UniProtKB/TrEMBL annotation:
Keywords: ATP-binding, Cell membrane, Ion transport, Iron, Iron transport, Membrane, Nucleotide-binding, Transport. Its main location: membrane. The keyword Nucleus does not apply. It is a peripheral membrane protein. It comes from the Bacteria. SUPFAM superfamilies: P-loop containing nucleoside triphosphate hydrolases. GO terms for biological process: iron ion transport. This is Iron dicitrate ABC transporter ATP-binding protein. It comes from Modestobacter caceresii.
């Protein structure tokens, strides 16, 4: 499928009270691609996603969906096009997994309309994709952190939007489930053309799964482009204050960042390449 919706920020300034978090930021999200936003703690990653989903009004500038300011769009109209998985979502007390995932269908409900077979199918597909079908009748507050995260992702999938924003979707997940979720989002992008923007802490997972990387630093975009353009030793040092060595991931062919602590030295190139050096 071909992406038909555009999402952009123009001269965007975001603040909490007197504290400015992002200032004068311009960003064009590539339609039909996967964008990963990376950066150090408190650099504005989550704040940017909150504004792009209109949870946070800008101090100045604007976020545009198909050329229209998102903060002026009717809520239901926006929710049929753009979905958000926030960083720490809160479920109503006692709600079951199936009911929570079903709430992803609310933007598609009209006044006095009945629950449809299409709604049932969307919820079932989302539960299946996230391997949460066996949890359908359980209360969300009884689940582990990883199970809850997968249920929230299922709700976002059930919404079936063309644009999906996810703030740290791999939080609380073990490494196997992290890969499963990112594979699932890649499948969604490849098969439905869904434009995905996600905040990730793991630079190597971001480089492996994203088509487009955005590195934030001090409320500004330090670098944006392909993983090969953005994930460099210079960028890692500037954005994270970390010395590293960046090599080619032998599995994915994408950049792979090897952090260097105070007690480590750079590995020899022949060791990285699996040669004896003789």
């Amino acid at each position: 499928m071909t992406a038909t919706h555009s999402l952009a920020a123009e001269d965007l300034t975001l603040a909490y009270g007197e504290r400015t978090v992002i200032e004068g930021l311009d960003l064009l999200v590539p339609p039909g691609r996967i964008t990963a936003v990376v950066g150090a703690n408190a650099c504005g990653k989550s704040t940017l996603l909150r504004s792009m989903s209109r949870l946070l009004a800008p101090r100045s500038g604007r976020v545009l969906l198909d050329g229209k300011a998102v903060h002026r769009l009717p809520a239901k109209e926006l929710a049929r096009t753009l979905g958000l998985l926030p960083q720490s979502p809160i479920a109503p007390e006692g709600i079951t997994v199936a009911d929570l995932v079903g709430r992803g269908r609310h933007p598609h409900q009209r006044v006095f309309s009945r629950w449809s077979k299409e709604d049932d199918a969307a919820v079932a597909a989302a539960l299946d994709a996230t391997e949460t079908t066996p949890l359908a009748d359980r209360a969300v507050d009884e689940l582990s952190g990883g199970q809850r995260q997968r249920v929230w992702i299922a709700m976002a999938l059930a919404q079936q939007t063309d644009l999906l924003l996810l703030d740290e979707p791999t939080t609380f997940l073990d490494v196997a489930h992290q890969i499963e979720v990112l594979d699932l989002l890649t499948d969604l992008n490849r098969t439905r053309g869904t434009t995905i923007v996600m905040v990730l802490h793991d630079l190597n997972l971001a480089a492996r799964y994203a088509d487009h990387l955005v590195a934030l630093s001090g409320g500004q975009i330090h670098a944006a482009g392909t993983p090969e353009d953005v994930l460099t030793e210079e960028c890692v040092r500037a954005v994270f204050g970390l010395d590293s060595q960046v090599i080619v991931d032998p599995t994915s062919g994408k950049p792979l960042m090897l952090p260097m602590g105070r007690h480590h030295t750079a590995p020899r190139a022949d060791v990285l390449q699996g040669t004896s050096g003789s």
